[in-house]
Design goal:
Chain lengths: 890, 92
């Protein structure tokens, strides 16, 4: 064994390679590990593994971990750890470790590589099945390995077969429907204490198995008696194992037991040189079998055995370390105090039922085993080993602790990590709670880092004692994944930083970046927000950009709009169904604005659709709604109207669109495309023309989202940037001004154009938005039409779109503000509100602030004043600029 | 995570699919449907305990809609069937 040096609480220690931090510290004589979170009780290591409630540490070396159990940390050279009393802290540096993900299908997944799990793995491997066997401990073999027993070699050799994938240090953290399981494999922390940038520190496995075998084993249970939490009090299986691993600090031991496991561990302690002063067994009589297998071997070694007795209390040193145990014989009432270094508790076994309960299998109470066990009746899941109750030969008594008075109950700990005691349980029951789910929330038992691995069954047993019910009558234990605390980075894998979500950019994006435009996220798209000149802020840049659009010429990258190519002989009829207005009558080469509703009649998306040919259309959708609209079209085509010959193809990324906007845009287009007919009469509103623009083949559409004369130049996305550069170059003479999403919003709001998702939230009909004009009265049907006649949608006092003009001319009302009738100005809430602001800006064109809002019975309120806190505003028509629609012709 | 049998692609993870409510919700004739019939079509959905015929779309795969029986208690999948084909019997 090679030596390993590590640091704990600032002190250098030497341990042996393969030691857990707990083993190494115990070997170095560290018994008082930390103080408890809420009551400052001295605490020591109590268990062997992930059930440990006391020995929490913060790892400060390598990637760092805020809260892990010392019993699960394998020491390596350079490890730095410190004890915790309460929560840990995350390192404030970025974790540069690599994390990976792996996916695997298998015939059989075996969880747990103890003897039972190994036997199952071999059985299925022998049948030629593909098997994955995962175990959370460093070494294979479960309890048998911990007790130093030999694992049958045929079980081990099965693990190396070609059809078997065997992973240790791999914790299954969740089991889900249809054989799905997620596991985390720790791959580097046990090798060194450095940040692992090449080999993944943790690999997260996603497994789908035809059959799942749960062989998750069991944890030993403590008992509840006064002062049962001192350093020096351990689970007997843990105490014996630590001593076998070379911990020499315990010269004497007393074993308190309810089953035969206590005898086994007493013998293990004895054989490792610890003087076992007594085995105190709560059982008055042992069966013949137990007498032979447990009592006799211990008695033969000269160990004193006290039957029908148990621990009542303990005494400690000035530091609170265990010095002696007080036991009683309940029959005679006599008490005896025995001085001892180690108090080893065997309170029975608690099978690890978590993974079974995740998939809805309920554990059942077995009185014979004093435990909740799981016997799966589900075909695709089997349960084996201790989980399934394969430990009846231990013959435990159903016993959780002695009767205690209130003073004793105050220091009789049920959940060590939460410092919850028997008295807390009594108070919960006194307050009328019986169900485990209520008691858990009242006392916080089972809610700490260890998720009640030692305290769950104890709690149910003790409440049962208090109210005279069996443990399974208190409720059933429900656990939720993950089984252990998992770093977020492990779940994220490589999807961190820039890889968290796809980023979509247009072909013109590099220009926006070079121009220093701050970006706005619109769905996954990055769109330029505004284009500041030196010294400008958002406000001044937007004023300048809007001025250019209203008085000169401005340019915007509109490539992110969703675009769907629709072809087929029934495409026109189909569009008549999905839009509220008529499309089949549209002439080839013309565009039309359309509104889509759901079957409930609520506005769903909008956009301009162009008839490119007799049976060929190009639909545009909102930037964020493209995928949703595409799915919507497919759903109707496939599931309602399969007789329609229509084909939809997403072409969003294939087309770049540059919008030139403003009274001088005609002049700019003429510069860009000298041969194109651009006159007012020769290129009508909503008309499309094909031609070369700056030498690039383009479709030019006269469409306006600002109310101004405007053209959208559509080219193959490859030429987007080149087109933009040409627009900037040739437009320089006209002072062409690029603008971003903020100015886009101001310009459209001034015209009262809605944005689906801003003016709407799925509860607005076209009529609510003052868009009755777009709802066809001629068509027999379209999606949503019937719903307009429902009582709720046809009433006149719905929330309706209106404009708002703040009476303080420069006051921009925060978007989302609720407002009330004017008599409530400055009143203290609660006051009845009548509506809310959906869009709100300062308009350079109006030289004042303005807003759009949805107001109850809004149209009837036009002209009324409203109060927004201490401010007031007047309700207007939802249009502020160019009510006569004359500007669009230039 | 469910393992959903797409009739076109085979079994795939649930993350590739979108759910589309019950399979037997038919678009009523809007001209003759009463308010009650129409609101039933728009808003009312069955939520049975046990076998349920439902619609799914393999949105991250073949993009096609299909129907399938699913047990809402055990999450077991029964037979799948394509739109406008006869519904297989409710599994037992």
């Amino acid at each position: 064994m090679s030596n390993v040096t590590f640091k704990f609480d600032g002190v250098d220690y030497v341990g042996q390679a393969g030691d857990s931090l707990a083993t190494a510290l115990l070997r170095n004589g560290v018994l008082h590990f930390t103080d408890s979170t809420y009551r400052d009780r001295p605490r020591g290591i109590m268990s062997l593994w992930i059930d440990e409630p006391n020995a929490l540490v913060n790892i400060d070396s390598g990637a760092g971990e805020p809260m892990v159990q010392a019993t699960t940390v394998e020491i390596t050279d350079g490890l730095v750890a410190r004890s915790l009393s309460g929560i840990g802290d995350l390192p404030d540096t970025r974790d540069l470790s690599r994390y990976d993900r792996a996916y695997r299908y298998a015939d059989v997944l075996v969880v747990g590589a103890g003897l039972a799990g190994l036997a199952e793995a071999k059985k299925y491997a022998d049948q030629g099945k593909t098997v994955i066997i995962m175990d959370d401990k460093p070494e294979v073999g479960g309890h048998a390995q911990q007790c130093g027993e030999t694992i049958p070699p045929e079980l081990l050799s099965a693990l190396t077969r070609k059809n078997v994938l065997h992973l240790q240090r791999t914790t299954v953290i969740g089991t889900y429907d249809q054989g799905y399981a997620v596991a985390v494999e720790r791959r580097t922390d046990h090798i060194n204490s450095k940040v692992s940038t090449d080999v993944a520190r943790i690999r997260t496995w996603h497994v789908r198995a035809e059959h799942t075998v749960l062989a998750t084993g069991a944890f030993q249970r403590p008992l509840v008696f006064a002062n049962n939490d001192r350093p020096g009090i351990m689970l007997s299986h843990a105490g014996a194992t630590y001593v076998e691993r070379g911990v020499t600090m315990f010269k004497t031991a007393v074993v308190i037991t309810v089953d035969n496991q206590g005898y086994t561990d007493a013998i293990r302690l004895h054989k490792s040189g610890v003087r076992v002063l007594a085995i105190v067994d709560v059982r008055k009589k042992l069966s013949k079998a137990s007498n032979k297998s447990a009592r006799k071997p211990a008695a033969k070694l000269g160990i004193r055995i006290i039957k029908g007795a148990t621990a009542l209390d303990t005494n400690g040193t000035l530091d609170g370390i265990l010095s002696s145990v007080v036991i009683n014989d309940p029959k005679s009432g006599l008490r005896e105090t025995i001085s001892t270094d180690l108090l080893a508790i065997s309170g029975g076994w608690t099978p690890t039922v978590h993974l079974a309960t995740y998939i809805g299998i309920k554990p059942t109470w077995s009185k014979k085993r004093a435990a909740f066990i799981v016997r799966s009746k589900v075909k695709s899941i089997s349960t084996v080993g201790m989980l399934a109750g394969d430990f009846e030969e231990y013959e435990p008594a159903v016993f959780f602790g002695p009767k205690l008075d209130d003073t004793q109950g105050l220091v009789a700990y049920v959940d060590h990590q939460r410092d919850a005691t028997l008295r807390d349980l009594r108070r919960a029951v006194g307050a009328g709670m019986i169900s485990i789910e209520h008691v858990k929330r009242y006392t916080a038992i089972g809610t700490a880092h260890d998720q009640g691995k030692t305290s769950g069954t104890l709690t149910m047993g003790l409440i049962g004692n208090l109210v005279g019910l069996e443990p399974d009558e208190i409720g059933s234990l429900t656990f939720r994944p993950p089984y252990i605390a998992v770093p977020f980075a492990a779940l994220a894998g490589r999807e961190r930083g820039l890889h968290t979500e796809p980023i979509r950019t247009t072909s013109i994006h590099p220009w926006h970046v070079a121009a220093g435009a701050p970006m706005e996220d619109v769905g996954q798209w990055k769109r330029p927000w505004f284009f500041p000149k030196p010294g400008e802020d958002l406000h001044s840049a937007v004023l300048r950009e809007c001025r250019a659009a209203r008085n000169g010429v401005a340019v915007m990258d509109a490539s992110t709009l969703g675009k769907i190519d629709i072809q087929g002989k029934d495409a026109g009829a189909f569009l008549d169904q999905v839009y509220t207005n008529m499309f089949s009558t549209l002439k080839v080469g013309m565009s039309r604005y359309g509104l889509m509703c759901g079957v409930d009649g609520m506005v769903f998306d909008d956009g301009v659709t162009t008839r490119l040919g007799e049976n060929h259309w190009l639909m545009t959708t909102t930037t964020g709604g493209a995928a949703k609209v595409m799915d919507w079209l497919e759903e109707w085509l496939q599931t309602e109207w399969p007789h329609l010959e229509v084909f939809c193809t997403s072409v969003t990324e294939q087309i770049a669109t540059v919008a030139i906007v403003g009274p001088k845009s005609r002049e700019l287009l003429a510069l860009l495309s000298p041969s194109l007919e651009v006159s007012k009469e020769g290129f009508a509103f909503m008309e499309n023309k094909y031609g070369d623009v700056a030498g690039i083949p383009a479709r030019i559409a006269r469409i306006s989202f600002s109310g101004e004369l405007a053209y959208e130049i559509n080219v193959c996305a490859w030429y987007g940037l080149e087109l933009w550069n040409k627009v900037m170059e040739l437009g320089a003479a006209l002072d062409v001004t690029p603008y971003g999403t903020e100015s886009l919003h101001v310009l459209r709001a001034e015209k009262g154009f809605v944005i689906v998702g801003q003016e709407t939230d799925g509860t607005q009909t076209p009529q609510d938005l003052d868009m009755d004009w777009i709802v066809s009265k001629k068509k027999d049907d379209f999606i949503g039409k019937r719903s307009f006649n429902r009582a709720d949608t046809s009433r006149s006092d719905r929330h309706q779109l209106v404009g708002l003009l703040p009476e303080t001319w420069e006051y921009v009302i925060p978007e989302g503000s609720y407002f009330a009738e004017v008599q409530h100005k400055g009143a203290t809430p609660p006051i009845p509100h009548i509506g809310y602001v959906t869009s709100s800006y300062f308009s350079g064109e109006l030289n004042r602030s303005f807003a759009l809002a949805l107001v109850h019975n809004g149209r009837a309120r036009i002209g009324e004043r409203v109060a927004i806190g201490n401010e007031t505003a007047v309700i207007t028509e939802p249009i502020f600029v160019d009510k006569e629609n004359v500007r669009r012709d230039g | 995570m469910l393992h959903i049998p797409c009739p076109y692609c085979g079994p795939r993870d649930e993350t590739e699919f979108h759910y589309g409510a019950g399979a037997n919700i038919f678009y009523p004739d809007p001209a003759s449907a009463t308010d009650e019939e129409w609101s039933k079509f728009v808003f009312i959905r069955e939520n049975p305990k046990g076998w349920h015929a439902e619609r799914w779309v393999h949105s991250a795969g073949c993009r096609r809609w299909f129907n399938v029986w699913r047990n809402t208690i055990t999450h077991e999948f029964g037979p799948t069937y394509k739109p406008f084909t006869e519904q297989p019997k409710r599994p037992v």
